[in-house]
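User: Quick one: structure for sequence A, then sequence B.

Assistant: Sequence A:
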Amino acid sequence: MKTKTRILMVDDNLALLNVISKLLRSEGHEVCTAPTGLEGLWLTRQWLPDLVLLDVRLPDLDGFEVCRQIKSDPALVDVFVIMLSGEATSASQKAGGLDTGADEYLTKPLDAEELFARIRTAARLRHTTAALRASEQHYRRLVEILPDAVGQLDEQGRLAAVNPQAASMLGYAEAGLLLGKSAFELAPPEEQARLRADLALALRTGVLHNVQYTLLRKNGRRFPAEISAAVSSEGRGQPSGLVIVVRDITERKRTEEDLRQLPRRIIEAQEAERLRVARELHDGVNQILASAKMRLRKAEDSLAAINPAATQMLARCYELMVQALEENRRIAHALRPSELDELGLADACRNLCKDLEARSNLRVSCQITAPPKRLPPAVELNLFRIIQETLSNVEQHAHAATVSLQMTVQGGFLQLSIRDDGRGFGPKGPRPSKDKRRGIGLTNVRERAAALGGVCEIKSTPKQGTLIRVRVPV
C-alpha cells in the first residue's frame, strides 16, 4: 500500500517542477512547489512537509543555506531534505550538502522510478525517525514527572543524565551539577564496594531489582534508598551503560520502624496499666478490706455473749473477708510481682515456679543462673512476663505432668528454655479452643522477645510436648 507523503519541491526550473510534481501527485502524494529558496523556506515553516526536494542552484538563497536553516529550526526537526543538482555533482559538493544536514544528495537527471524509490525510502526513514523522537520525548516527559530520581550511567558509573528529581533528592540546586559525577561518590565508603559490585552485575545480567543502599546528600546526610537498574544499549544491542531509578525510602523505613516498635509500645502501655491497677488494689481496695475485716472482728467480739447465731455469721463473713484480701493480694501480685522489683528476675522466677507447683499437679524443675548484675527493669519485666505467660499456657492447656525451666547467660545473651511433656500441637499451631486467649499467649511471647531485640523459637509435636527457646541480648 502506497503511503501518502507531503512533499515540497523547491526548484527554479518551472518545467521540471511541473513534470515532477504531476508524477508525484499521480503516485498519491500531496505536493507543493516553490521556485525560490525564500519561498521554499516560508512554505516549509507554514505547511510542514514530510519531505523537501531541494535544488542546489536557486536564484536567491542556494540550497545549502535553505537546508541549513531548515535543519537549525527546532520546529522542523522531523522534515527530511533531499538535495538535487545537475551541476554541483562533485564529491566535495555532495559532502558539503550532507554537512548542512541533508538526508540525501541526488544528481540530475533522475530516472522516475529511482526518484520514487528514493522518496519511499526517505518517507520510511522520516516516519521511523519521527516515531523514535516522539517516543523519546514521551519517555523523557515521563521521567521528568516521576517522583523518583532517574539517571543514566555510563559503563564507568558516571552520571551522563539525570532528571530534576535526582538533584532535589540529593540536595543539588540543579541537575547539571550531577553530570559527570561517579555514582559511587553518592554512597558512603562502606557501601561503595557493594554498589560497585551490584552495578557491574547489572551490566552483565541486564537488570538490578529494588536493592537497598545508604546514599549521601550533598550536605553529607545519609538516607536509605532503593535502586533498580537496567542496561541501556546502543546500536546492535551493545550495552552503553545503565538506566537507574532511585527511590528515597526514608518515610517507608520510618513507618516500618514505627510498626516494629508498636508491639513494644503496646506492651509498655499494658505494663503501665497493670502497675496502676496493682497499686490501686494495694493502696485502695486492700485498705478498705483490711478495715472492714477489723470491724467485723470487733463486732464479732461484741456480740459473742448476746447473739451466738449472729456471732457465727460474722465469723463466716470474717473468713470471706480474709479470702477476699488474699485474692486481692494475689491479683495485685500477678499484675506486678513485688519480688521482681525487690529481689530481681532470678528469685521472682523461682517463686513463680514454686507457686505453680504448689497450686497444680505439675512437677516443676527450675534451673536459673542469675545474671552477674541486675538487668534493666524493662528487660527483667519482659522476661518475667515471657516465663509467666509460658507457664500459664502449660498449666491451662498442655495437660502436662512435668515442666522444666532453664535460664543461662552466655556471651552477652540470656538464653531461656521452657519444656513440657504435654500434648503439644502440630505445625498449624494449637488446636482451637473455647478459651479466646488460646494462641494469644504464644504471640505475646514472640512480641515481648522481639521488643527486647531477641528471637523466640517454638518447637512442638503432637503428644510429645513443647519446647520454647528465647534468646535476647543483655
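Sequence B:
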Amino acid sequence: MTDFERLDGPATSLVSARPGPDLSAVGWLDEEYVARGTAVRYTGELSSDGCLDLRAGDSAEFATRVAVRRPGDPAAFSGTLVVEWLNVSSGQDAAPGWTFLAEEVVRRGHAWAGVSAQHMGVEGGDSAVQMAGLVGLREADAVRYADLRHPGDAYCYDLFTQVASALADGPLRELSVRTRLAVGESQSAFTLTTYVNGVQPLVGLFDGFLVHSRGGALAPVGEPGTGLVMAEVVTAPAVRFRSDLAAPVLCVQTETDLFGHLGYLPARQPDTDRLRVWEVAGTAHADKFVIGEFEEFLACDEPVNRGQQVFVLRAALRHLEIWATGGQAPPSAPPLATDGDGFQVDENGNALGGVRTPCVDAPVAVLSGLPSPGASLICRLFGTTKLLTPERLRELYPSNADYLSAYAAATDAAIHAGFLLEDDRADVLADARPHTIH
C-alpha cells in the first residue's frame, strides 16, 4: 500500500527553463506529495525479440516525491491521468513531458503526475549531460525533503507502478480516473521502454505509453542503492519494442535520436496494431521551446534547433488518449530518409521523410537535430538552426505574402494528416517567421 503526505505549496524543485500555464488562472491545483510504500526488485533476461522475462525478487521501502497538477473542479476532469517518469539526466528532476504537453493536458482536462522514480532525482548523483549545480531533492532542500528515501534503481520500475496505481485512491480520490497514460522523454524513455517490454506485461497498469526520444537500448533493471549509469546504458545493444504489445505505444523520435550516442536507428521497427513510431523532420532531442530564454547559457556555437516538435507531441498525446480508450489508431508516418550516418535532404538542406511540419515544408532555415562539429555534450542534444540565404529565400518566396501563404498551406496539410491539431492552428501560424523575408 502506498500512502501520500501532502507538502505545503506546489513543486518548486522541477528543473524548467520555460514557465508553464498559469494553473491558478484556470482553476487548477498544483500540489506536491511524499509517497511512501514498498517496491519489489525485478530480475530477468532479454530475449531476442525484445521481450524481458522479469521476475519479482526482494522488496524495499521507499519515500519519494510526486508532483500533481489537476483540475480543481472534479466535474472538469476528463478521466485521463498522465503519469510522467521525471527525467534525471541533468542531475535533478525535470519534467520535459509537462513542458511539451501542458497546454494539451490543461485544455483536455486531464490530470498530470510527475513521479521521482529514479535514485538520482532523490539522492543525487552525476549529471549525464555535464550540467553543474543541479542536485537531488534531499540536497536541494534538506528540510522539505528530509524524509525521502530511494532504495536504488533496482526498485524504480515497481516504485513507478505503485505510485501511479495508488494516485486514484490518494491525491486524486475526488476524481474518477478511468485511463492511465505513461509518458517519458530521453533517459525516461529508456526506462519506459524497459517498462513496456518487461513490466507492463506483468502488471497491466497503463492503458497507453508516449515514449519520447528513446535511444536504441533498453535501460537495465538496475542495482540496489544506486542509480543507472547512462554512459553504460547508451552503449548497450539496440532493442525493439516487443512484438506482442498489450497496451498501445506511440513513440516520437527526433533527428538527434537516430544517430550518435543515442543510436536509435538499429531499433527501428514497422508500425503494428499496437505501435506507432513518428520520426519528426527538422527536430532535435531538445530545442528552443525547451530552453526558452536561457539559450545563451548553453554557449552553443550555433543557434539551437527551432523545430516544431511541441505541436507534434500535443497531437501525439491526443491520438494516444483516443487510441487507449478504444478509438481510432494514430496515423502512420514514413520514417526519416537516412543515408549512412546522416539524412537524405531536400534542396534546402532539410531532412526528407518523417512527420512534416510547416517549418520544414515552408522553410526559412535548415533545421537539424545533428550537432555542429566539436559541439559540447549538451549542445549535441539541441541541434542547430541555420537561416537560408537571402537569395534562396527570394527564390522560394517573392514576397512576404507568398511565404505566409505557403506556411499556412503547410500547416493545414499537417493538420489534415493528423500530425498537428486544429486546436493549435493559431499558435502554429504565430510561429511563422515572416521577418526573415525581405
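The first helix runs from residue 96 to 108. The first strand starts at residue 3 and ends at 7.

User: Thanks, that's what I needed.
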